[in-house]
Amino acid sequence: MTEIRRVAIVTGAAGGIGRAIVRGLLAAGVRVAGVDRDRQPLQALAASAREQGKADDLLTIQTDLTNDSAVEEITKATRSRFGRIDILVNNAGIGPGSIRPDSWQRPLKFWEITPDQWRLFVAVHTTALWRSRMPSCPR
After folding, report:
1. Do 58 and 35 touch, CB atoms closer than 8 A?
2. In which element (H, E) is residue 81 found?
3. 78, 97, 111, 123 - which has most CB atoms within 10 Å?
């Protein structure tokens, strides 16, 4: 009898915590679709998977979760490559540094955030999560 291997989608996969999650899942035998908006960190993630001997178990997907089509794009690519989706790790996020690079030295005040910046935070932290749980999303 063949063991069924789990498949995970990890958003924010190319940096910090996301990269560690991907490496851990791969080490545990889970196949992973690593999603991030930045190409170079995704390429580094793929190189890391090759070093682990897990290149075939990693699919990298470059997309922006603020796009309405992102969830469908991610699920379609993942199912096309691995045939299933078992785990979703919503790790993507942005912080004050995306608005002000020196935010550690000069913390943002809420009244300094523009409406567009607020919409970006909501899109990444809330709307993308909501879309991933909608019944109409391809599973």
Report:
1. no
2. helix 70-82
3. 78
Work out the mean pLDDT of the chain and round it to a whole number: 89
The 10s digit of each residue's pLDDT in 58-102 is: 999 999 998 888 989 999 999 999 999 999 999 998 888 888 889
The residues, any chain, with a CB within 8 Å of residue 98's CB and separated by 6 or more, are: 120
Q: What is the per-residue pLDDT for 68?
A: 85
Contact at 8 Å (CB) between 78 and 11? no
CA 56 to chain centroid, in Å, comes to 18
Residue 34's DSSP bridge partners are: 10, 60
Rg (CA), the chain: 16
